Amino acid sequence: MGSAEETVMALLPPDGTLDSCLSVASKEMAASSELENEVLSLFDQYRNRLLRYVLALGLTIHDGEEVVQEVFLSLFRHMQRGQPRHNLAGWLFRVTHNLALKQRSANRRLRDVMESDEDREKSDTSLNPEEAIVDRQRQERLLAVVRALPQQDQLCLRLRAEGLRYREIAGTLGISLGSVSNSLTRSLTRLQRADGR
Fold first, then answer.
1. With b meaning 16 or more CB within 10 Å and e meaning fewer, what string describes 55-66?
2. Residue 131 sits in which domain range?
3. Which helix (H) or strand (E) holds 132?
4. Number of domains in the chain
5. Are 188 and 139 in a shared domain?
6. Residue at 88 is within a domain
7. Are residues 41 and 64 in the same domain?
8. What pLDDT score was predicted for residue 46?
């Protein structure tokens, strides 16, 4: 049997390979750091949009924050595995939609993002009081139309307002392109009629 020193020496890789192993480990750590920075950048870019979407699905702020965090954890894993990175916006909304539906309880009603207190309190200072009243009445009339739409139509409208293309909306909601087109056409027609256009 050899000494302890011989045992340790036997466990170490041959000359030069230790440096190579350390170099590989260093590159992996750098790549992981770059990946983290990329995900953090996407988080900054999409967090508010995703949170507004989950709130529109009826989740509370607390539940919505948890869903969004889970989405970006899933994104990190997705990218770490080397999965495709094309159309990340559609991917983020699809995963957000699926996680939000799981999180949402049956008794929660759909909440409209435009109804938030912040939106109500914001007013255009360039409007005189009469114009402000007319504008508020118009917004309330349009909100009533949006609330009266079927849930799928509301979701299509919200996703379109977030800038998603028809194909991305179809993928997010799991419906056909034709259904998205019909839904948006129907919704926009109702809104135009309510707006007197």
1. bbbbbeeebbee
2. 118-197
3. helix 129-148
4. 2
5. yes
6. yes
7. yes
8. 94
Same domain, 49 and 130: no
Q: Which of residues 105, 132, 166 is at a domain's end?
A: 105
- Mean pLDDT (whole number) for 17-23: 54
pLDDT tens-digit profile of 86-142?
888 999 999 999 888 887 642 233 333 334 444 555 554 566 788 888 888 888 888
* Eight-state DSSP code of residue 12: S
pLDDT tens per residue across span 38-71: 989 999 999 999 999 998 888 888 888 888 998 9
Query: Is residue 97 located within the same domain as residue 32?
Result: yes
Instruction: Tell which of 42, 77, 105 closes a domain.
Output: 105
User: Token pair for residue 78?
Assistant: 């997705």
Tokens of 6: 């011989």
| Buried/exposed 101-138: b ≥16 CB within 10 Å, e otherwise | eebbeeeeeebbbbeeeeeeeeeeeeeeeeeeeeeeee
Q: What pLDDT, on a 0 to 100 scale, did the predictor assign at position 106?
A: 29
Half-sphere exposure of 119 (CA within 13 A, CB side): 11
Residue 97 is predicted with a pLDDT of 92
Could you tell me what percent of the chain has a pLDDT over 70?
71
Q: Are residues 94 and 49 in the same domain?
A: yes
Residue 10 lies in a domain: no
Report field, pTM of the whole predicted structure over 0.90: no
How distant, in Å, are the alpha carbons of 2, 50, 171 from that of 10? Answer: 10, 54, 55
Taking alpha carbons only, the member of 89, 99, 88, 36 closest to residue 66 is: 99
